[in-house]
Specification:
With 416 residues, the chain is of the alpha/beta class. It contains 17 helices and 13 strands. Strands 3-4-2-5-6-1-7 form a seven-stranded parallel beta sheet, sandwiched between helices. Strands 8-13-12-9-11-10 form a six-stranded parallel beta sheet, with helices on both faces. The structure holds adenosine-5'-diphosphate (ADP) and magnesium ion.
Length: 416
C-alpha cells in the first residue's frame, strides 16, 4: 500500500484537489493493494479519479477500457493537461500513430492507456499488451457489459477472458453510474467479480432540481427558459436526429448559441461540436442520447428533455450530466402521454418478452411524470433507495399548486 500522505500529496499535485470525495481514497488503496473493486456511484461523483490516481502512483501502465472514442479523447486531453502521459488506442488512429503509442507503452512512460473493447479483442493488441508492464485494468461505464443496461455492447462480454490472457493477476476495477440492482448484479456476474470489494454510495444527486412541464407551447417555453439562463451551459435531449436538427435550428434563429449532436452526423462534425461545447464556444448542445456518456463538463446548469425518455434509468443518467461541479442543476422534462404512445409503437416488432419489458419501463416513466409528490423520493425508490423525508428541491416539493397535470387520463394497460 501507499501512505495516505503520499496519496494526498499526489491528489493535490496532479489534480489540484485538497480532499478526497466520499470513498475515493479507500477505492484507490484497494486497487493498489491488488484487490478487485466494483464501484457504484452516481454521475459526477468522481469515479475517474479512482483509477487515474492509482495509475499515476503505481509502476507500469493502467489499461482503461472505455466504450466511446469521444470519452477517451475527453479524458486523455484532461490527463495530458495535468502533465500525465495518457494515450488511447482506437479506430481513430492511423497505423503510424498506433505504432507510436505501442512503442511508448512498451518503453514504460505511459501511465494510462485507454482502449475500446473492440481493439482489446484484436490478437495483435493482446500480444502487445502481454509484453507491456500493466499495473491494473479499469472498466469504466461497466453497465455496457449488461444487456439490461442502456448502451449494451456484446464485445464487452469477453473482457474478463481477455484480461486473464494478458495477466491473470491484474487487479480489476469496474465502475458504473447504473443505479438499478439488476444491472449491478449482471455486471458483477459477467465480470466474475463476485469476490470484488463493492463500493456503493447513495444515488441521490442533491443539487439537481427535478421538474416536469407540459409540452404545450414547448418551443416558446424552451426559448424563454434558455434566454433566461443565457451564458449558462445546457443540454437538450431529443428523441430523433431529425428533431435534434430542427431544435438546434430553432434555437439558432432565436439567437441562441446552439449546436446539434447525433450519431448521423459526420464523426468529424460530431467531435468538433462536442469540443465547442466543452470549450465553452457554444452554450447549448441539442442532442440525442448518443451524447454525454462519461463526458466531463462540470458546469452544465440544465438538462432539458424535449421528448420523454424510454426509461427512468435513462432519464436519471441523462439528467445526471447537470451539476457535476456540485452546484445546482435544473432538470426539466417536457411531458405528454402521446410521446409514451410513440415510444411504445417503436417496440411493436420486438419479441414478446422484450416488448413487455419496454412497456414496463415506459409505465414507470408515466408514473413518475404524473406523480403529485416528491419526485426524488420516487426516483430513488425506483433504484431501491429509501428516502424518509421529502427532498424540498423538486417541482412538487417547492410548488405543489403548480404541479403538472397530465392532459389526459392515463390508463396504461400491460396488454403486450
Ligand atoms: P463520474 O465519472 O463519477 O461521473 P467524474 O470522474 O467525471 O465523475 O468527476 C466529476 C467531477 O468531479 C470532475 O469535474 C472531477 O474533476 C471532480 N472531482 C473528482 N474528484 C474530486 C475531488 N476529490 N475533489 C474535487 N473535485 C473532484
Ligand atoms: Mg465517468
Amino acid at each position: 500500500s501507499i501512505s495516505p500522505d503520499v496519496l494526498k500529496e499526489q491528489l493535490k499535485k496532479t489534480f489540484g484537489f485538497s480532499q478526497f470525495r466520499g470513498e475515493q481514497e479507500a477505492i484507490i488503496q484497494n486497487t493498489i493493494a491488488g484487490n478487485h473493486s466494483f464501484v457504484l456511484m452516481p454521475t459526477g461523483a468522481g469515479k475517474s479519479l479512482c483509477y487515474q490516481l492509482p495509475a499515476i502512483v503505481m509502476p507500469g501502465t493502467a489499461i482503461v477500457i472505455s466504450p466511446l472514442i469521444a470519452l477517451m479523447k475527453n479524458q486523455v486531453d484532461q490527463m495530458v493537461a495535468f502533465g500525465i502521459n495518457a494515450q488511447f488506442l482506437n479506430s481513430s488512429l492511423s497505423r503510424a500513430e498506433i505504432n507510436r503509442v505501442k512503442a511508448e507503452v512498451i518503453s514504460g512512460v505511459v501511465k494510462l492507456l485507454y482502449i475500446a473493447p473492440e481493439s482489446l479483442n484484436k490478437q495483435e493488441n493482446l500480444n502487445f499488451l502481454q509484453q507491456a508492464n500493466i499495473s491494473f485494468v479499469a472498466i469504466d461505464e461497466a453497465h455496457c457489459i449488461s444487456e439490461w443496461g442502456h448502451d449494451f455492447r456484446p464485445e464487452y462480454r469477453k473482457i474478463r477472458t481477455i484480461i486473464e490472457n494478458i495477466n491473470a493477476k491484474l487487479p480489476i476495477i469496474a465502475l458504473t453510474a447504473t443505479a438499478t440492482p439488476k444491472v449491478q448484479q449482471d455486471i458483477q456476474k459477467t465480470l466474475n467479480l463476485e469476490d470484488a470489494t463493492v463500493f456503493k454510495t447513495s444515488f441521490n444527486r442533491k443539487n439537481l432540481y427535478y421538474e416536469i412541464r407540459s409540452k404545450k407551447d414547448i418551443d416558446k417555453q424552451l426559448i424563454r427558459y434558455i434566454k433566461g439562463h443565457s451564458g449558462k451551459a445546457g443540454i437538450i435531449y431529443c428523441l430523433s436526429r431529425k428533431r435534434v436538427e430542427e431544435i438546434s435550428d430553432l434555437l439558432l434563429v432565436n439567437g441562441i448559441n446552439a449546436l446539434p449532436y447525433h450519431a448521423g452526423l459526420d464523426p468529424q462534425v460530431r467531435m468538433s461540436n462536442q469540443e465547442a461545447f466543452l470549450n465553452e464556444e457554444v452554450d447549448v448542445m441539442v442532442a440525442t442520447i448518443a451524447f454525454g456518456m462519461g463526458i466531463d463538463k462540470p458546469d452544465v446548469r440544465f438538462v432539458i428533455h424535449y421528448d420523454a425518455p424510454k426509461s427512468l434509468e435513462g432519464y436519471y443518467q441523462e439528467t445526471g450530466r447537470a451539476g457535476r461541479d456540485g452546484l445546482d442543476g435544473t432538470c426539466i422534462l417536457f411531458y405528454t402521454y402521446d410521446d409514451i404512445l410513440k415510444l411504445d409503437k417503436f417496440n411493436k416488432d420486438k419479441a414478446v418478452s422484450e416488448k413487455e419489458n419496454a412497456k414496463l419501463l415506459l409505465s414507470e416513466m408515466v408514473y413518475y411524470a404524473n406523480l403529485g409528490v416528491c419526485r426524488r423520493k420516487q426516483l430513488l425508490s425506483y433504484f431501491g433507495e429509501h428516502m424518509a423525508e421529502n427532498c424540498g428541491f423538486c417541482d412538487n416539493c417547492m410548488h405543489p399548486t403548480a404541479t403538472f397535470k397530465a392532459e389526459k387520463e392515463v390508463t396504461w394497460v400491460l396488454d403486450a
